[in-house]
Amino acid sequence: MKWIAFLLVAVAMVAGIVVSAAPTNGPASEDAAAPIYGITIPPGYRDWRLISVAHEAGNLNDLRAILGNDVAIKAYREGTLPFPDGTIIARLAWSYVPSEENNKVFGRAQSFVPGSAADWYLQLMVKDSKKYAATGGWGFAQFDKDGKPADEAKHKTCYPCHEPAKASDFVFTHYAP
Amino acid sequence: MKWIAFLLVAVAMVAGIVVSAAPTNGPASEDAAAPIYGITIPPGYRDWRLISVAHEAGNLNDLRAILGNDVAIKAYREGTLPFPDGTIIARLAWSYVPSEENNKVFGRAQSFVPGSAADWYLQLMVKDSKKYAATGGWGFAQFDKDGKPADEAKHKTCYPCHEPAKASDFVFTHYAP
Predict the structure, then answer these.
(1) Any idea which fold B32-168 has?
(2) A110-125 pLDDT, tens per residue?
(3) Closest CB from B48, B92, B164 relative to A105
């Protein structure tokens, strides 16, 4: 049965090489949970459907995409408020840079595209009305481009910042038609 | 068997009501094909995965999301060039408007979000190396927010504009990590 063991090892090695050679696709799901809310990066979030896009100028100076899991997309499209338990909204951000390549074609400086992943690449809102009852039913998490969560002090700022959006269940992003 | 027929009719009616009551979600797939390349709006494109986002200033003044079908996403992630036949890339655009709601929270004017669908809401690139051999293997299409295609003159401008991006198979958009 030695050849079977050999075959399994060979297959595992090839699989390992394939995985390590895959292009980076955002931070991987890590065991590291964000403080306070205990949220980890949900696998496959980069495959989620689009809710909207935005540009934040000022210090953030980013271009961002807001994606949602199936529960989030269904709620947005049906106008369900408050969002149901199980909703996860993911905000991805990249640095806001001019595209020399596009500007050459347009004949003027007008095109802005994502550069590298922003320092705080990934923000998450997770709906669990019981677990997160003290913060409007939402848990919040923020990760850098390597999947490392922000510290507790940073996470304490999430809910107070979202409180003004109470009328839309503490969510700022509207669905882009 | 009359009651079965009645039941079927009732179910069809309810289904019809549900469909017609669904929120608008971009222009529907219409029979109207865009000129020159004969492209129609692919069903479900609003559910496709995200390639990237961008802001075009100047006359366009929009925020845009670039989505891809499964063939497109696979090719982007694996760095496959030229893109394989069956690739479809969809560019959605919305007017670029300040968000008063977000700016109040940030305490300054820095937040820009999608307003209404842009005049030319949807642009498509469809790869078919045989059918579209004369234009780099790509067919192009442009639709307004009601799903009406642009005219022939407009479609004649697509390929010349994309020619400078020959090194990336005539595609401007890079994958946002």
Answers:
(1) Chalcone isomerase (3.50.70)
(2) 999 999 999 999 999 9
(3) B164
